[in-house]
């Protein structure tokens, strides 16, 4: 909004020239989201405590220690993340950019699905909310609508194409199969973050790291000079997503203040589904769907651990892990929660560096 309002006045007031620069507006988005989180955080947490007298229902099939240690902690903290991201993005981004609106719709749409799921869990006092089929169908419909919109505003030369890392000129034309791929990336990323969100601070820091990486990628992909230098595919207009990613970084950092062990609030499906969907959408728009699997490797590992566990138990009657997702396996082995969380953060950082390396290795 500030970009649209103030840049036309830059000829009269030279200071408004600053709003032309993505770097300046991205910095503003980080700080705005962070301030919103710090200001609204205590009020939202107090409100959640009032309406959730017994806190989030704890899964009975999870680690036994959670029934005691995490009882009474409110959920739906993702509301704070959504508010910080949305307000900050609307304030600092170019609102004539279609990609910005597409990613906001994905984020808010997935957040509403998560909010409904969290609300049903609370009202029914059960760890089960929306049925898996309804949740998946709603995610697919939102992803489908967003994908068709993204394809419509993307250049014809790559609207249905998949870029392959390490190959500077390789674009695979998937035709309408690209729609299925894009939906898979968005829905898969959303649910992968949801599976990872099982310990205090475990999911939000890898989300923040991935958002920072994709903010950098969006800036490069949307800049013809840098894209040509790095020999990556130039997608006009995607640079504006750097502002959204910056808002996500600020919102994540602000939420971590309240979610750090021991957590004052959980993000719930409201936060995890929206953050994961946002990362998936940005990966699709910037043509870095495969790189997301590297940068978001922690989320991939958590998801694969669940798939392997379920498949092994159904086929052989035996479990590969003591408990899935993977972080619960290490809890069962006696690792302390902060140890698991910090080591997963370290792994996320290493994978992020590996993902960014694909930008240069061509």
Number of helices: 15
Spatial strand order of the main sheet: 1-2
Q: Output the radius of gyration.
A: 20 Å
Beta-strand portion reads: under 5%
On the 0-100 scale, what is the average pLDDT?
91
Number of separate strands: 2
End-to-end separation in angstroms reads 37 Å
Structure commentary:
With 362 residues, this protein is an all-alpha fold. It has one domain. Helices cover 66% and strands 2% of the residues. It has 15 helices and two strands. It has helices at 2-6, 22-51, 66-69, 78-92, 98-124, 132-153, 177-196, 204-221, 224-230, 241-259, 268-285, 289-295, 297-316, 326-332, 337-357, and strands spanning 161-163, 171-173. A two-stranded antiparallel ribbon has the order 1-2. The longest helix is centred in the first third of the chain and has 30 residues, at 22-51. It starts with a helix and ends in a 5-residue tail after the last helix.
Topology:
Elements: H1 2-6, H2 22-51, H3 66-69, H4 78-92, H5 98-124, H6 132-153, E1 161-163, E2 171-173, H7 177-196, H8 204-221, H9 224-230, H10 241-259, H11 268-285, H12 289-295, H13 297-316, H14 326-332, H15 337-357
Antiparallel strand pairs: 1-2
Helix pairs in contact: 2-4, 2-10, 4-5, 4-10, 4-11, 5-6, 5-11, 6-7, 7-11, 7-13, 8-10, 8-11, 8-15, 11-12, 12-13, 12-15
């Amino acid at each position: 909004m500030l970009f649209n309002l103030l840049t036309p006045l830059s000829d009269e007031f030279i200071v408004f020239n600053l709003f032309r620069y993505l770097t300046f507006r991205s910095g503003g988005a980080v700080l705005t989201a962070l301030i919103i989180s710090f200001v609204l955080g205590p009020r939202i947490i107090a409100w959640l405590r009032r309406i959730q007298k017994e806190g989030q229902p704890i899964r009975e099939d999870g680690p036994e220690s959670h029934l005691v240690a995490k009882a009474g902690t409110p959920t739906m903290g993702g509301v704070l993340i959504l508010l910080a991201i949305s307000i900050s993005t609307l304030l600092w981004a170019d609102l004539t950019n279609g990609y910005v609106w597409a990613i906001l719709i994905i984020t808010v749409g997935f957040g509403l699905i998560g909010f409904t799921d969290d609300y049903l869990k609370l009202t029914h006092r059960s760890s089960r909310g929306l049925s898996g089929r309804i949740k998946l169908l709603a995610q697919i419909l939102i992803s489908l609508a967003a994908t068709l919109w993204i394809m419509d505003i993307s250049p014809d030369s790559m609207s249905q194409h998949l870029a392959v890392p390490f190959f500077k000129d390789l674009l695979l034309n998937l035709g309408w199969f690209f729609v299925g791929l894009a939906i898979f990336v968005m829905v898969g990323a959303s649910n992968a973050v949801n599976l990872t969100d099982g310990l205090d601070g475990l999911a939000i820091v890898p989300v923040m790291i991935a958002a920072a990486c994709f903010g950098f990628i969006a800036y490069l992909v949307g800049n013809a000079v840098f894209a040509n230098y790095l020999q990556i595919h130039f997608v006009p207009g995607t640079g504006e997503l750097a502002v959204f990613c910056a808002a996500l970084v600020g919102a994540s950092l602000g939420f971590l203040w309240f979610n750090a062990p021991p957590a004052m609030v959980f993000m719930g499906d409201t936060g995890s589904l929206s953050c994961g969907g946002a990362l998936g959408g940005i990966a699709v728009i910037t043509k870095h769907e495969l790189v997301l699997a590297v940068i978001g490797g922690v989320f991939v590992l958590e998801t694969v651990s669940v798939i392997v566990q379920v498949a092994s138990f159904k086929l052989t009657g035996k479990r590969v892990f003591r408990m899935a997702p993977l972080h619960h396996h290490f809890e069962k082995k006696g690792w302390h929660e902060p140890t698991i969380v910090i080591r997963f953060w370290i792994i996320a950082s290493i994978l992020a560096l590996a993902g960014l390396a694909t930008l240069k290795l061509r």
